[in-house]
């Protein structure tokens, strides 16, 4: 949160670049629409125009915030990284991103393991048809909705599995079978909770 300002973002970028030992970054994202995120975006716009970042984007910009942002800024965000998985599908948010030509990217594409996603019977049955796991079906489902996925694993074999989703396609009926999974809200984080927002600012309220 302390980086969410013009000066803060510039400093954070230089810090990251130095730590990584690189001369430029491919993609740099604002974490959430909190603090002085318009100021932070101006810093990213300058770095982008100066060729120090190839693409700039945002995270966790829900539709009303995204619309305001896209109607205001000079350089449009290229990516919006939001929570997207079968249990939180955000179909309307995807439509708006399409309208503004912002690439959706899924964080938590496995719902961080919630809802028994890795052993879900519907995903498992669909996967069995293609010799794929429930995890691979969940990733493929998002990709077929035009979403970039960034699953995380600490296991090499799972990383390999998560890359191996390009040689099969879900049918329209299989995509439809996953639609009812949606519970319409996050069970991981509540960006709408004032106490969550205050905690990000370092103020903890019981
Ligand atoms: N922008 C944001 O606000 C935001 C918020 C949250 C997360 N993120 C980013 O999103 C990325 C991924 O999200 P995430 O880590 O939150 O959740 P996730 O990818 O939905 O789930 C990660 C969990 O899935 C397990 N897993 C991964 N592949 C598997 C497979 N093929 N089979 C079975 N289990 C598997 C991992 O366990 P093992 O490690 O044991 O394999 C880990 O427990 C991360 O890079 C994270 O930094 C961004």
Please describe what this structure looks like:
The protein is of the alpha/beta class and 206 residues long. 44% of the residues lie in helices and 12% in strands. The protein has nine helices and five strands; from the N terminus they run H-E-H-E-H-E-H-E-H-H-E-H-H-H. The chain has a five-stranded parallel beta sheet with strand order 1-2-3-4-5. Helix 1 crosses helix 2 and helix 5 crosses helix 6. The mean pLDDT is 97. NADP nicotinamide-adenine-dinucleotide phosphate (NAP) binds next to helix 7. NADP nicotinamide-adenine-dinucleotide phosphate binds next to helix 7.
Q: Spell out which ligands are present.
A: NADP nicotinamide-adenine-dinucleotide phosphate
Q: pLDDT under 50 segments (min length 5)?
A: none
Strand line-up in the sheet with most strands: 1-2-3-4-5
Dominant shape? globular
Radius of gyration: 18 Å
List how many beta strands DSSP finds.
5
**Approximately how much beta-strand content do the residues carry?**
5-15%
Number of separate helices: 9
Q: How would you state the average pLDDT, rounded?
A: 97
Summarize the main sheet: 5 strands, parallel
């Amino acid at each position: 949160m302390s980086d969410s300002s013009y000066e803060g973002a510039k400093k954070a970028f230089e810090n990251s670049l130095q730590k990584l030992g690189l001369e430029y970054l491919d993609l740099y994202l604002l974490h959430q629409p909190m603090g002085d995120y318009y100021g932070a975006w101006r810093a990213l716009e300058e770095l982008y125009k100066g060729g120090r970042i190839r693409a700039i984007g945002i995270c966790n910009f829900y539709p009303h915030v995204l619309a305001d942002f896209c109607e205001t800024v000079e350089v449009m965000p290229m990516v919006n990284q939001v929570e997207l998985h079968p249990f939180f599908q955000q179909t309307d948010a995807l439509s708006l991103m399409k309208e503004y030509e912002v690439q959706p990217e899924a964080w938590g594409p496995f719902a961080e393991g919630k809802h028994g996603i890795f052993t879900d019977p519907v995903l498992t049955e669909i996967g069995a048809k293609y010799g794929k796991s429930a995890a691979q079906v969940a990733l493929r489902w998002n990709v077929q909705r035009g979403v970039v996925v960034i699953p995380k694993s600490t296991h090499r074999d799972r990383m390999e599995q998560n890359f191996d989703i390009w040689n099969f396609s879900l049918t329209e009926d299989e995509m439809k079978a996953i639609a009812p999974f949606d519970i319409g809200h996050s069970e991981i984080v509540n960006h709408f909770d004032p106490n969550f927002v205050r905690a990000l600012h370092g103020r903890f309220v019981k």
